[in-house]
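Sequence, structure tokens reproduced for reference:
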Amino acid sequence: MKNPLLFCTLLLCSASLMAQVSFTNQNSAIGSYPDYSEVGVDMNGDYLDDYVRVSDNGIGIDYQQPDGSFISTFITMPIANVPNWSIAAADIDKNGYNDLVLGNGQRVSFLFANSDGTGYIEDLHPEFIFSQRSTFADIDNDGDIDAFVCHDIDESHPYRNDGGQTMTLDQDFFLTLDRPGNYAAIWVDYDNDGDQDMYLTKCRGGAAPGDPNRDNAMYTNNGDGTFTENGQDINMRDNAQSWATVFEDFDNDGDFDAFIVNHDFQNRFMLNDGTGVFTDIIATTNINANDLGAWENQAGDFNNDGFVDIFSELSRELYLNNGNLTFTGVDLPFDEGAIGDFNNDGFLDVANDGDLWINNGNSNNWIKVGLEGVESNLNGIGARIEIYGDWGMQIREIRSGQGFSHMNSLVGHFGIGTSTTIDQIVIHWPSGNVDAIDNPAINETLIVVEGSNPLAVTDFEIEGIRIFPNPTSDVLNFSLKGLENTPVRIVDINGKVVNQTTISTGNNINVAALKTGVYFAQFEVEKQAVSYKFIKR
């Protein structure tokens, strides 16, 4: 069940778009612990992001309190497999406390929280793996969270959740190409079909250009428990030495675009055309395509203007999204770290190498959404959150394991600029359940239990609307019956209304007079504003 896309034709506010970002170091508020890869995630089920550091001698956790202070705790225990390459968090055994997967140059292990979160045990897996990015995802969508860990010198490792604290390595569970150079996996529904796909960013030391071991890969979910690698078909099989890819809806048109950092050739900004096919537009983004060598690559709306910014290890550490697929580079005193809201003020902060960088914020508004799965995994990992308002639509996915090594918050974060209301929030759970909340309060954290606000089911919501043919040269047809005489606006890629018409008795509109290009057909159905992207040939 899917809701149609709503294209953001109006910028939230020109003043908001120019809102700058600055940070203040507040590491005096936290403990001083050794660490490898940082974690910025709620560990005790209160939806407040904590700062977690794992080292040889134990686990340091700065538990965030409702007043913005921290209670610092060090859990002394030997860690056999320190996460010197990557770390991810999820509640594997569903006891209300998040567990960790540790990626090391030799092994993978899982740290399981006890029944009250005061202690952990390490389950060290014996098989050799030079692990890179570690992730959690419900790969078989059975409601239990699984793990996937990239392997630098061989086929990557999927770990099936067999219940409780049993994670089983099973190469047949999720088949990937038996090749080395696997650097950063990210789970994303890039084709908007309601299930999680996986993009694998690759870099193979010593491999010459053209070597297939350097090919980035997209594993598209077939919806039946199998995946098909189709990176070439969607223009995402980059053969550069890539380190990490971030997927976000940078233009608020309802699909996830991608930014790839490379170590040779150039960085890529891949724009999703709405059908899951990508085009590199970095030349027009104001991002330096030849600023090479970044390891970390992440994103978030740091100034709460409603557009997702890029946070990467480039010479300009933060690229603020101007709302029109161009970006403005900003210098920061740090260039990587775990992203979370460490003082619960609605602005994204960064924890890096023992430093806590608190976002100084501005007057823009926001909302955060915390999820509690019932049929889905407890964290809601893989869920898609949509918010609707006078600006249009924004989307986020809950993901465990992004960038190259760190672990970010599992709470969905949205800036809404100067807007003071949100019309609706829609959550698409991995189970297929859909919850909708009308008119939520802003500048708060909304906690949603799966199934607590079920979306009413109509023919429109069951069937959606298909437009065809797409691309088209003359007529655009609509699959849902009963739309005759519905007013339609045709909007170009810059948000300009170029035509206003109505759907004919044949359930179509004539677009023959349009120039070649990308457009959006916008109209209302069942009191919802919807938008569909199409290409005029």
Notes: The radius of gyration is 22 Å. The CA atoms of residues 67 and 297 lie 31 Å apart. The longest helix spans residues 459-463. The chain is about 0% helix and 40% strand.
